[in-house]
Design goal:
Elements: E1 13-16, E2 21-23, E3 31-36, H1 43-54, H2 56-60, E4 64-70, H3 74-84, E5 90-92, H4 97-101, E6 105-108, E7 114-117, E8 120-124, E9 130-135, H5 145-152
Parallel strand pairs: 3-4, 4-5
Antiparallel strand pairs: 1-2, 1-5, 3-8, 6-7, 8-9
Amino acid sequence: MALNVGDEAPSFSLYDSDKNKVSLSDYKGKKLVVLFFPLAFTGVCTAELCSVRDSIADYNNVDANVVAISVDTVFTLGKFKAEQKFNFPLLSDFNKTTAAAYGSLYEDFVLDMKGVARRSAFVVDEAGKIAYAEVLESAGDLPNFEAVKAALQ
């Protein structure tokens, strides 16, 4: 199901790379960027998340938080976060429920993989509504981060 601007953001409760449970409700009253990415340690995913890491001040300056979600395990995400020094939570959607709720799940991915997160970007506003939604067809494309930042203003 595709999410549209104005829709209620689907709630989630996932474990981060430090094995802490993180929920959408933890960000109630705050702006949140929710990024879905296919797989840790892959070229485009690493480039995407490193660009967010390197521009985190842009998000902090508008009081926005960022989380990035994939179907990788918390252990894989822990190594990925440590290696790349990411300064925002990486959440494991190993059971694929959150990616599915956000319409961000490939049924079929490369190498016959099933149920991999589709590269996507969402902005959830302070009221828990979708303020921006972008779900990409090609895993090789990056979200429009200028549009994401504009939606946070």
